[in-house]
From TrEMBL:
Family of this protein: Belongs to the short-chain dehydrogenases/reductases (SDR) family.
Keyword rRNA-binding part of the UniProt annotation: no
Presence of the UniProt keyword Transmembrane helix in the record: no
UniProt entry keywords in alphabetical sequence: Oxidoreductase
SUPFAM superfamilies the UniProt entry points to: NAD(P)-binding Rossmann-fold domains
InterPro entries: NAD(P)-bd_dom_sf, Sc_DH/Rdtase_CS, SDR_fam
Species of the source: Turnera subulata
Name of protein: Glucose and ribitol dehydrogenase
PANTHER family, per the entry: NADPH-DEPENDENT ALDEHYDE REDUCTASE 1, CHLOROPLASTIC, NADPH-DEPENDENT ALDEHYDE REDUCTASE-LIKE PROTEIN, CHLOROPLASTIC-RELATED
Chain residue ranges for the region called Disordered: 1-20
Top-level taxon of the source organism: Eukaryota
Length: 302
């Protein structure tokens, strides 16, 4: 398939970046955001999509695929660190949608850990585009821990605020602007199902996201708003090279260690179509409360 070339390039294990979140423009090899063989078909024509953490990695690929499918895209990024990735994402979306009339894309700088910021993001998107049809809660923070004791209260708070509090804050404010037929998609992780000793706090938040997805789906079923999740396996993104996210000795073999039958990391473009599927009422109108598993073949019974 089209991404094989990029996946065949070995990962340079000595490319840890000094900050969180990581940045895509410094990664080598670069993640593959778009499969050149992908054939869009207006599955999200005219929909307004808000994607948190959409400047890079999985969120960037989702932004591209949603734009290719006809959606108007707004995404968030972290100012001062991710500006270059944000510019590249905006530029590419404009290229992908060249010649198309209508609004967008927009990038919004924010820190999703705090409710007032999430409200401002929602207000800006609604102010510019009139509503929200697709909300993707995707921003995430990961830091490995070799012992339980090193999980400080500050780190725990950062992990939980970024990975699960933000989901509550975003839906709390976005729901007022979401009509029947809207879709909410949350980025969980394979580690929610299989655990990961060095990701005790992170995997706990991802488990919370799965339960959040299921409970919220039941809560919103009468409003005909579908809520689903995607639980990727190891995907080559800036998260993996950001400061302290992955033990350095594991980076060089990322995705090819145990637990991945395909024996390679996935690319963002191999995950984004799951989001398209769940966002599209043509594709997944009978699905809510479910999680898709683009993870290289791991059986998770989820
Ligand atoms: P990424 O670094 O490209 O994306 C993470 C994004 O989170 C960043 O772009 C950043 O904008 C955002 N973010 C982090 N802290 C933030 C904060 N305080 N405020 C606002 N935004 C913040 O990496 P990615 O791997 O594409 O991550 C996207 C999602 O996928 C995350 O939820 C991650 O947990 C999940 N995930 C990734 C993998 C993987 O192997 N890469 C596997 C399973 C799940």
């Amino acid at each position: 398939m089209a991404t094989d070339g990029a996946q065949a390039q070995p990962i340079d294990g000595a490319q840890a970046q000094p900050q969180q979140p990581g940045v895509e423009y410094l990664m080598h090899p670069r993640p593959v955001s778009i499969d050149p063989e992908y054939q869009p078909s207006n599955k999200l024509q005219g929909k307004v999509a808000l994607i948190t953490g959409g400047d890079s990695g999985i969120g960037r690929s989702v932004s591209y695929y949603f734009a290719l499918e006809g959606a108007v895209v707004a995404f968030t990024y972290v100012a001062g660190i991710e500006d270059k990735d944000k510019d590249e994402t905006l530029k590419t979306i404009k290229e992908l949608t060249k010649g198309r009339s209508g609004k967008g894309p927009i990038a919004i700088a924010t820190d999703v850990r705090f409710e007032e910021n999430c409200k401002k993001v929602v207000d800006q998107v609604v102010g510019e585009f009139g509503g929200i049809d697709i909300l993707v809660n995707n921003a995430g923070y990961q830091h490995f821990n070799r012992t339980v004791e090193e999980i400080t209260e500050d780190r725990l708070e950062r992990t939980f605020r970024t990975n699960i509090y933000a989901h509550f804050f975003m839906i709390k404010h976005a729901l007022a602007h979401m009509k029947e037929g809207s879709s909410i998609i949350n980025t969980a992780s394979q580690v929610a199902y299989q655990g990961a000793s060095w990701l005790l706090d992170y995997s706990s938040t991802k488990g919370a996201i799965v339960a959040f997805t299921r409970s919220l789906s039941q809560f919103l079923v009468d409003r005909k708003i579908r809520v689903n999740g995607v639980a990727p396996g190891p995907i080559w993104t800036p998260l993996q090279v950001s400061a302290g996210a992955v033990p350095p000795e594991l980076l060089a073999t990322f995705g090819s260690a145990s637990g991945v039958p395909m024996n390679r990391p996935g690319q963002p473009c191999e995950v984004a179509p799951s989001f398209v599927f769940l966002a599209s009422n043509q594709m997944s109108s009978y699905m809510t409360g479910q999680v898709l598993h683009p993870n290289g073949g791991a059986i998770v019974n989820g």
